[in-house]
Amino acid sequence: xxxxxxxxxxxxxxxxxxxxxxxxxxxxxxxxxxxxxxxxxxxxxxxxxxxxxxxxxxxxxxxxxxxxxxxxxxxxxxxxxxxxxxxxxxxxxxxxxxxxxxxxxxxxxxxxxxxxxxxxxxxxxxxxxxxxxxxxxxxxxxxxxxxxxxxxxxxxxxxxxxxxxxxxxxxxxxxxxxxxxxxxxxxxxxxxxxxxxxxxxxxxxxxxxxxxxxxxxxxxxxxxxxxxxxxxxxxxxxxxxxxxxxxxxxxxxxxxxxxxxxxxxxxxxxxxxxxxxxxxxxxxxxxxxxxxxxxxxxxxxxxxxxxxxxxxxxxxxxxxxxxxxxxxxxxxxxxxxxxxxxxxxxxxxxxxxxxxxxxxxxxxxxxxxxxxxxxxxxxxxxxxxxxxxxxxxxxxxxxxxxxxxxxxxxxxxxxxxxxxxxxxxxxxxxxxxxxxxxxxxxxx
Length: 444
Prior knowledge:
Elements: H1 12-19, H2 56-59, E1 68-69, H3 79-84, H4 95-112, E2 120-125, H5 129-138, E3 145-150, H6 153-164, E4 168-173, H7 182-191, E5 196-200, E6 202-203, E7 208-209, H8 213-222, E8 227-231, E9 250-254, E10 265-270, H9 272-279, H10 292-303, H11 315-328, H12 333-353, E11 370-374, H13 381-390, E12 393-394, E13 396-397, E14 407-411, H14 415-418, H15 424-438
Helix pairs in contact: 4-10, 4-11, 5-6, 7-8, 13-15
GO molecular function: alanine-glyoxylate transaminase activity; L-serine-pyruvate transaminase activity
EC number: 2.6.1.44
Pfam families: Aminotran_5
């Protein structure tokens, strides 16, 4: 039977679900977040009596009623995925789990669109950030040069991670809301030989989408030995990625965004060329848990349906990911990408109709799984986010340090976009319109 949620809508437990979005400065998941500075929370911002219009899509599911989560990850989850998390406890070396994990690794190949047997998938317990460590600890040796294409908070974080492992990092940073352009990338590659180039496919802090196909062609033409490594945390399963076709060497992502599985899994794919670079290291990786040396044979054994052990995986999360990937691959990936683009286009048109601007100003550089929206000068995050929450919709605050208080982020990935029975996007657009009006904003 579905669990009955009898917690009052205005209880402290429920308010805590949104309180971290309501800080007076930097409302969500940054070094400036309320979680790092709990004493700075102005609790007077929280409504004294909270009422929420719960979405029809949530009410019709087996999930307890809750505000619709439309941040750029975690996203809303399908019932079947969540039910998979309720799988009974089993050994991580039991035949049933080994079969499920093996199928999941094989499905990851299809998700990334690689048929090359030399490509190697990794599914590890951890967040998307663990993908950075996999790259930095295994593919780059201390003193080697890496070119990082800077598009926001997360590309900066990738650069910081590389430095921790001793890489010599050159950052080619673009202005807020845009990306480095191909001519300047070509110039940088011609000036120095780089072991690798990293690109954040969608920087979740700005909603900037980086183009991969032409970038890869440029790198292979100008610096063919340079590895092409992609942060696809906010792009895999909602933006087109052709691992083989575009000759990529590594893509790292996470479970909780467009893939639609609860947070807790680092998911990545590396090319045969990348794995050869790892095998050719002069020194062992400067990491234990993130060492490909410790994990590669584990992943290979599981994919071949053989029990193996280095560190304990999460059977429940693997079952959930198996369900999510089964759903994703039931239809052509091109159809999934087209539906995300159609929803994104509708949202961005609604934003324009409201007289608002996006952080990513160039339509060719706008992500299809999220939209970063500049607020009117008269509207504060601390007013609009609680207003949206009262309407049963949760958006995210800004995360880019230079503009953090000036914008909000609307995530539109997974079931909120793909399930035709849901009304999440329509409700969110209406909530944004009404919320801005309640905050005193009228389009000029």
